Amino acid sequence: MVFFYRQKKFPTLSDTGLLDVDMTHGNGMTIDLSLSFSTGPEIPREKQVERVHDTARTEATAVQFTVDKVDVNMGDLQLIFHDTTNHDFLYSLFGARINSRAKEAIEKDMEGRIRDLLVQSKRAVSETASNASEMILGVSH
Question: pTM to 2 decimals?
Answer without folding.
Answer: 0.63
